[in-house]
């Protein structure tokens, strides 16, 4: 079996895993991504084997090998993120959500525990959690980090953009001060452009005011 074929199975399995579950869907199963990765990888590996085989026997052999290799690789990819997500969630305030999206982890920090109203000064009470995130990032150095600020639509779009940018930069600064390499981190604001709930209700606006830390594996 050619190495190129084996690698193509792994790449395809990892890519497809990112689409297995919607962004904000929770599950009580801590190994969900491991299982999804193994099943997805096996299916893709078998499919690639059939597509690349040259005869019925060759197609069958490749399908069997592809399913085994794809399942193994997909399971490893899913397991790594399952493990990291569970480990990080256990160390953080229960109001902070760690979402495994298959190709990255999304840490959602509500504005209410991060900042005073209309401020970009991080509350002292939450800084310990940000140091826990930083310690996690240093234990798993093969990732890049995007810190993204979000607001609701109260006030002008220009003001919200500026506030979201300053808040993202404030969180990123704490991660850097806690020892995370600055070269791994970018920070930017999205203002009111990416709501996760309706801005027509107080509850929706509260959900939209947040900072997200995206932990994106680099290998």
From TrEMBL:
InterPro entries: Bact_OuterMem_StrucFunc, Gly-zipper_YMGG, OMP_bac, OmpA-like, OMPA-like_CS, OmpA-like_sf. Its main location: membrane. Gene3D superfamilies: OmpA-like domain. It is found in: Cell outer membrane. Residues 102-219 form the OmpA-like domain. GO terms for cellular component: cell outer membrane. Keywords: Cell outer membrane, Membrane, Signal. The keyword Lipid metabolism does not apply. Residues 1-19 form the signal peptide. It comes from the Bacteria. PANTHER family: LIPOPROTEIN YIAD-RELATED, STATOR ELEMENT OF FLAGELLAR MOTOR COMPLEX. This is Outer membrane protein OmpA-like peptidoglycan-associated protein.
